[in-house]
Amino acid sequence: MGPTASGKTSLAINLYQTNLIELISVDSVMIYKDCDIGSAKPSKDELIKAPHHLINKITVEEIYTASDFYHEAHEIIKAVHNRDRTPVFVGGTMMYFKSLLDGMDNLPPRNEEFREFLEERAKSEGLESLYIDLINKDSRYVSSINQKDKKRIIRALEIIEFSKDDKDDQKREKLNDRYNLFQYSLVDTSRKIIHQRIEERLENIITDEFIDEVKNLMGNYDIPKNHPILKSVNYKQCIEYLNGEINKENFYLKSLYATRQLAKKQATWINSWKSLELFELEEINKLEKTLKKVIHDFK
């Protein structure tokens, strides 16, 4: 793992050449078809050279969640082991990593009809009404959910509405309960290198080709209003530009700020992670050698 623009993709492609591993993408935007430039997705040639699971899996007419990732990742791990290879996860969507490592409660999936019903209630009755309803149903949420956090209030009510009563079905299973794990991350303690790389990469992203990519997404797909792609870095800013809300210069500046904030959040996650071996960006060759040794030792 590592922050955006840290060199994870090129490292993963090099590792794939050992012919001993399979790569699993841990990226909440690359999962979608036609979200290529804005997500810095590996090129078609790179994906031919080093295929990744969970890239170009679905279109933006569907919503892919951490729960989806958790369940699919476990199936992929089993299949990779059956082929006598080692699964290697690479990416920067920390919530996906967390769901895989810590396990997930066996919670119900999203129910769009019920969510729309609650959204209408929030408009007509006020969000406070939903919050009171939530507390009346389960008072434990008082300490964990802010009364103004509409997103979490709706999700909590959804869980209560559709959850099973069998608590045994909701126990978490951590990944290291099943497998031997080796966890590594690239970091940039000074943030100088990562900031420079972000600027360089963004200059290649904010192009007419990317604007066309977003136009095609908006024109060719029926994207749900609550879809996370609409708030994703680069895509959110491009949509604002296309809607005439910002000019080209501000499009770049807002994307730059959002990308830096994303890298900062990723770094915070990484620094709080347990059992994670850290390598500075300048040590990427050392990390590659370490990973190759681990991979070969498993064979």
UniProtKB/TrEMBL annotation:
The keyword Membrane does not apply. InterPro entries: Dimethylallyltransferase, IPT, P-loop_NTPase. The record marks 93, 115 as: Interaction with substrate tRNA. Its cofactor is Mg(2+). The keyword Lipid metabolism does not apply. Substrate binds at residues 4-9. It is an enzyme of class 2 (transferase). ATP binds at residues 2-9. Keywords: ATP-binding, Magnesium, Nucleotide-binding, Transferase, tRNA processing. Its EC number is 2.5.1.75. GO terms for biological process: tRNA modification. One of its GO terms (molecular function) is tRNA dimethylallyltransferase activity. It holds the Pfam family IPPT. It comes from the Bacteria. Residues 27-30 are annotated as: Interaction with substrate tRNA. SUPFAM superfamilies: P-loop containing nucleoside triphosphate hydrolases. It catalyses: adenosine(37) in tRNA + dimethylallyl diphosphate = N(6)-dimethylallyladenosine(37) in tRNA + diphosphate. Gene3D superfamilies: 1.10.20.140, P-loop containing nucleotide triphosphate hydrolases (3.40.50.300). Catalyzes the transfer of a dimethylallyl group onto the adenine at position 37 in tRNAs that read codons beginning with uridine, leading to the formation of N6-(dimethylallyl)adenosine (i(6)A). Monomer. PANTHER family: TRNA DIMETHYLALLYLTRANSFERASE. Belongs to the IPP transferase family. This is tRNA dimethylallyltransferase. It comes from SAR86 cluster bacterium SAR86B.
